[in-house]
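Wed. Picked up where I left off yesterday with Glutathione synthetase. The coffee machine is broken again, so keeping this brief.
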Amino acid sequence: MADLASTLNDTQLAILKDAALDFALSHGLVVRPPPSADDAATSQGGVINAPVALFPTPFPINAFNNAVKIQPLYNQLVHDISQDDAFLKEIMESLSSVDDFVKRLYDLYVEVKKEGIAQPASLGVHRSDYIINLSQGQAFSDAEIKQVELNTISVSFGSLSSLTADLHRYLQATTGYFSDKIDISALPNSDSIESIASGLASAHKHYGSKTAKVMMVVQPGERNAFDQRWIEYNLLNKHGVVLIRKTLAEVADQGRLNPKTKALFIGDQEVSVAYYRSAYATTDYPTEKEWEGRLLAERSLAIKCPTIAYQLVGAKKVQQVLAAPGQLERFVKDPETVEQLRASFTGLYPLDNSPEGLAAYEAALMNSDDLVMKPQREGGGNNIYGKDIQEALKTLTAEQRNAYILMDIIRPPITKNVLLRKGQLQRADVVSELGVYGIYLHDGHKVIRNDNGGHLLRTKGVESNEGGVAAGFAVIDSLLLV
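Structure written out below (tokens, as returned):
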């Protein structure tokens, strides 16, 4: 499979490209192109194919099964941490002095908690991202997953990832070009296109109003709207629940709370679930109005996906603290569960003024080739790599360094593929990152749902450090389990 791309000639690749483009446009495997003043198609609502790999990528079956197995453990961990106010306070107050965005989020959390939580129920749609680590001399089938990050807000590509696996099955069936190299049964199904909608439907049902609607909080001019629309369509067609789309500014302008029940209304429409597909980056809050919209939703009776507490748990600093000795055990009492979760951790180091942080700082100044430096940000394009870490550290004060963590770079195996972006093919040496979705619903007293929610594979050229599809670094792929 690793040399499949090189076994096909240009004519065969052109046939695959045309078939893939037609499939993508026919099935909604598309995104909006970047805005361009002279692009008439863009202004008229034109689309381009979502960036995809032309062939599925080999992935160790044992590593995949392990990632799926531990996802409910991570779902529960997020919830348990979100309930520990003292733990969040210790971390967020230290970050608040050096990170204005984290400070605004934490201040909002404190304000709402002081006022009193109107809705005890919470919905999590999480995604834990992994890269397989292949040690020297280790067999591919024995490679282990190492966690890159745990995403707790606005996890994307649940819909388009399911469609990409369908694309690969279609190309294999209709061309036969790689039928002797791919066992189609080795492409696992991902039900993320349905599971996210199902999670929203469960939360809507728990809210208890048949006339209320789910609200997806989106970014203005969203390019990835079609990944989101599939959730909307599944929610309506399979669960009979209507979804409305609003920006944070529109929530502020059009929203109001019932003074007695704190039910959230957008115009005359009651909102059962506030599902965020934005609100994770500083750019989502260009004015105070967006913060007003977020506060209004957080104060309301609507079930939040995620709550502000769940969002805070997704901070990189939390990930790093959990890796320290004894910290995970604060939330997980079962030794076997601790062992399963810790086995997925990679090396994580603070950059604060603790002895461990100062040691990591000095070590990075000496050699940063095998490290990545991460801020408390989502969305791709924010990390610092290799020699750039040393330059960045020299510009930061001791206090400013606390806004970052260091992580060991994970070295995955390199394979070959053909990437399809904006209708053009590119042969490439690539590496891949697995994301496993989780659906978690808690009513404030007990767990209602704790499920796996399907998976995503993102593939990128080996020359790219970052892995975000929406940020333009990677393509959507599917797994070939081996």
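Quick read: Confidence is low (pLDDT under 50) at residues 40-44.
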